[in-house]
Specification:
Helix 5 packs across helix 10 (about 280-290). It is globular and about 70 Å long. The protein has a six-stranded parallel beta sheet, with helices on one face. Strands 15-16-20-17-18-19 form a six-stranded mixed beta sheet. The protein has a five-stranded parallel beta sheet with strand order 3-2-1-4-5, with helices on both faces. The chain has about 450 residues and is of the alpha/beta class. The protein folds into three domains: about 10-90, NAD(P)-binding Rossmann-like Domain (Rossmann fold); about 95-290, 3-Layer(aba) Sandwich (UDP-N-acetylmuramoyl-L-alanine:D-glutamate ligase); about 300-440, Protein-Tyrosine Phosphatase, Chain A (Alpha-Beta Complex). The chain contains 15 helices and 20 strands.
Length: about 450
């Protein structure tokens, strides 16, 4: 793809998180006249470009040739909207990446599972001996991948990143699913869906969820579909034999995989479809699918204590993710399924959880800002004030072969720094429980 000249262009990077800092470095190296802004007045940062902190300077923004806006900032921010309305080009780091990238890209988005699918697709490429790179919304910022030696690049993309992306042209694009999330930013589900569907723009091949029409491209027919429904084409699921099918024939049995739950069988299908369209041999695809153990805080088995399995799914920050986790694990539970949920729901509608709580969850423990709202969805639920208290109560409620899962359906910022800290503290509490039990037995 032809490069867009940046030399001597007056470009302002707005937002100085990890992504913004990578943009400053990249643009400076390309000879642009770079300056930076951040709404945080107390931000401590040392850069070799002019930095303006606090309220965004509308006049300065409107005088720029281009704004590179970090995904954490809404395009509806008045100063940014004023600049855009004045004709200033507003893009994000992925669009900047697209201007210079020459390698095939596998691009994946979705409300849930995109980190797992992106990482698994990356592992499948590696298993085939490909020089593959992984980044975007996970791990390394996309711009830092451009100068690295590679044959293929896997990008996880958020709706925020896709809002400011126009010319990516993925080799393969995939939207996994759509559920209530980020409505405080997008305003409504239609706007959120439209942002996600931008992943298919100018893609050579498309992959989507057969069972979720909201993931289907608007103007093209998908090349490969996946799902839990039956199909003689693409990837599907044989529930009776717990086996993934390819074009109606046995492809991979879940018993041979380290990932658990039907939602993860969907993730394997999506990664398989993407890499298959990228020319990755099926034997390498299977090899990676069998050995991939998953990511931290995503339906991660933490411990098994006295026959009770403890699962950390702290990354489940929305309703859809928790429903997927419940649906994925409930069929394999031999004892109670005890769910710990709660946090900041970000204005989401919790009502879709009611049926799953009533029919599949044996005991519901809630905490955090929206814990009371979640507790109302199931009779005889339990409300607690901390993760430690939740773990202790779950241990008391557990029967033989029970499964205890932290899958909050909410963001973490009401009680924790981020979902990672929430998951880490959950693990600490479980380890403490294990040590106490061991001490009592000695």
């Amino acid at each position: 793809m032809a490069s867009t000249p940046l030399v001597n262009k007056n470009i302002i990077v707005v937002g100085l998180g990890l992504t913004g800092l990578s943009c400053v470095t990249f643009l400076s190296a390309k000879g642009a006249n770079v300056s930076a802004m951040d709404t945080r007045a107390d931000l401590s940062v040392t850069l070799k470009v002019p930095v303006f902190l606090g309220e965004l300077d509308v006049k300065r923004l409107c005088a720029a040739d281009m704004l590179v806006v970090s995904p954490g900032l809404s395009l509806k921010t008045p100063a940014l909207k004023t600049a855009s309305d004045a004709g200033v080009k507003v893009i994000g780091d992925i669009e900047l990446f697209a201007m210079f990238n020459t390698k095939p890209v596998l691009a994946v988005t979705g409300s849930n599972g995109k980190s797992t699918v992106a990482t698994l697709a990356y592992e499948m490429c590696l298993a085939a001996g490909k020089k593959a790179l992984l980044g975007g919304n996970i791990g390394i910022p996309a711009l830092e991948l451009l100068d690295k030696d590679s044959e293929i690049i896997v990008l996880e993309l958020s709706s925020f990143q896709l809002e400011t992306t126009y010319t990516l042209r993925p080799h393969v694009a995939c939207m996994l699913n759509l559920s209530d999330d980020h409505l405080d930013r997008h305003g409504d589900m239609l706007s959120y869906q439209r942002a996600k569907l931008r992943v298919y723009r100018d893609a050579r091949f498309s992959v989507c969820n057969r069972d979720d029409a909201s993931t289907w491209p608007m103007t093209i027919n998908p090349d490969v579909m996946f799902g839990l429904s039956s199909s003689e084409r693409g990837l599907s699921w044989d529930k009776q034999n717990t086996e993934i099918l390819l074009d109606g024939k046995a492809f991979l049995n879940s018993q041979d995989c380290m990932l658990v739950g039907e939602h993860n069988m969907l993730n394997i299908q999506a990664a398989t479809a993407m890499t298959m369209l990228a020319g990755i041999p099926l034997d390498a695809v299977k090899q990676a699918a069998k050995t991939f153990a998953g990511l931290e805080h995503r339906c991660q088995t933490v411990a098994k204590i006295d026959s009770v399995r403890w699962i950390n799914d702290s990354k489940a920050t929305n309703v859809g993710a928790t429903i997927a986790a419940i649906d994925g694990l409930a069929p394999s539970c031999k004892g109670k399924l005890i769910l710990i949920a709660g946090g900041d729901g970000k204005g989401a509608d919790f009502e879709p959880l009611r049926e799953h709580f009533e029919q599949q969850v044996s005991e519901l423990i809630t905490l955090g800002k929206d814990g009371p709202a979640l507790a109302k969805l199931k009779n005889n639920s339990h409300q607690v004030s901390s993760l430690n208290e939740a773990v202790k109560l779950a241990d008391k409620l557990a029967d033989k072969n029970a499964t205890v899962m932290l899958s909050p359906a909410c963001a973490s910022l009401d009680m924790f720094k981020n979902y990672q800290q929430r998951g880490e503290l959950f693990v600490v509490a479980i380890n403490g429980l294990a040590q106490n039990k061991k001490g009592a037995q000695s």
